[in-house]
Amino acid sequence: MQTQCKIEKLEFQAEGVRKIEVDFNGGDITSDGGILLLSQTEESSKIISQLAECFIDHRNQNYIEHTKEELLKQRIYGLALGYEDLNDHDQLRYDPAIAAAIGKSDPTGKARRRNSDQGKGLAGKSTLNRLELSANNEKSPDKEKQFTVDNEIIRELFVNLYIQSHSVPPSEIVLDIDATDDPLHGKQEGRYFHGYYGNYCYLPLYIFCGDQLLSAELRTSDKDAAVGALEDLKRIIPQIRQSWPHTKITIRADGGFCREEIFVWCEANDVKYVIGMSKNDRLKKFLQPQMEQAKQAYEATSEPSRVFGEFYYKTKNSWSLQRRVIGKAEHLEKGANPRFIVTNLSRDEYEAKQLYEQLYCARGEMENRIKEQQLELFADRLSTSKLKSNQLRLWFSSIAYVMMETLRRSALNETEMSQAQCSTIRLKLLKIGAIVKVSVRRVYIGFASGYPFQSLFIKVYKRLSSLQPCQT
């Protein structure tokens, strides 16, 4: 990558007989050679191409040098490669390997129109910033607006990408719902202090199916955790059923989503649910025999003990009918630890122990997926002043996650990295140093002979190359 550094020779002390000399005259070298795997993933999945259809470009097409699809690729590939800020792109724009992977016909930028842009194959931070701020614009064109975006189509896109990833409709799926905090460090719109998390934050709501992301909605933190969950279910589940009418759907969530309106809608629309409940004195009284049994077992063995009970329960005011409740009577070294879940799954479908341990407890894996996106793909970098543009940033991070998950699912399955997190995939397969040579006919990217994951890289490339392009 070209830099503005003055070329001078540096000498380092070494233990051996040869001295070490360093300069910055090695030519075009990238640290992101593995971006080609992201490009190949996009070639088969068309994820970013479909995202680009959600944007309207109001610029005069006779004068632009970066299409909306190229801008989106630059931003999302950057997130996947570990560049969280727009400022990073003022240096990345010099990298011909990234420009070539995005599809630039002039990856070196030597033919750029303005003298100040020559040698920069990609867009700078200001152009990318105008794309991000498009979320604040109305749909109608205006001379001051360069882009507008249709949020509803983006919401539909995440579900469509999930559906497209299956060649055959699954017989059953489980949708996990959860909220998390997204700390704020400025005066962003919609900034509120959250007592539970102990900071100023947003409260995004996520819906996953296994490792796949179906929804990421940014909310202010002055709301109940369940606010918006039912609206998302009413949007997502009919969209899934339009393509998969016979697929059984179950939703799974913790006690923050134990709400009558969610139960009633699921019961009326043939959707199963398994949702945590806050414990109270009435629930504990129902579970008292099992708690005594668990306590006796612990006293006899000094080992944690667990006994399950179930009963039908109705709150005094908020529930319209009795529902099946599973109680986990657990006794630990610290004492009793009762837990409860409510469900409309029958005993014939799941007995109590199996329902709690195998179905409900599996929802904990969703928290790992949220951490991947929040910490490794920078969903916590919501630093624009407006709520709408921060929602768009959250979606860019979400698309970067979908890209990485698609790469993992389609090309890393049955390898040593089939369960690898995004940061591990980035480190071992994307952050590869390489020499870049651009000629009239080709772009040559040369990896180091000592790259330790050559065989895996080749296997991933072959798998991605064999995939049929997505039919959108």
Structure description:
- The chain has helices at 35-45, 47-52, 68-81, 89-92, 96-102, 125-132, 151-164, 229-243, 260-268, 281-286, 288-301, 352-360, 364-376, 387-411, 422-430, 454-466; strands at residues 10-12, 20-22, 29-30, 55-57, 147-149, 172-179, 182-183, 192-194, 199-202, 205-209, 212-217, 248-253, 272-277, 305-313, 323-332, 335-336, 339-343, 434-438, 443-447.
- It is of the alpha+beta class and 472 residues long.
- It folds into 2 domains: 25-149 and 388-466, no CATH class; 152-376, Transposase Inhibitor Protein From Tn5, Chain A, domain 1 (Alpha-Beta Complex).
- The strands form 5 sheets. Strands 6, 10, 11, 12, 13, 14, 15, 16 and 17 form a 9-stranded mixed sheet that branches.
- α1 packs parallel to α5 (96-102) and α7 (151-164) packs across α8 (229-243).
- The longest helix is centred in the C-terminal third of the chain and has 25 residues, at 387-411.
- The model has no long low-confidence stretch (mean pLDDT 93).
In short:
The protein is an alpha+beta fold and 472 residues long. 38% of the residues lie in helices and 19% in strands.
| Termini gap | 36 Å
Give the uncertain stretches in residue-range form.
Answer: none
Shape: globular
Total number of distinct structural domains = 2
Average pLDDT, rounded to a whole number, is 93
Specify the CATH architecture of the largest domain.
Answer: Alpha-Beta Complex
So how many helices? 16
Proportion of helical residues? 25-40%
CATH homologous superfamily title of the largest domain: Transposase Inhibitor Protein From Tn5, Chain A, domain 1
SS-based class? alpha+beta
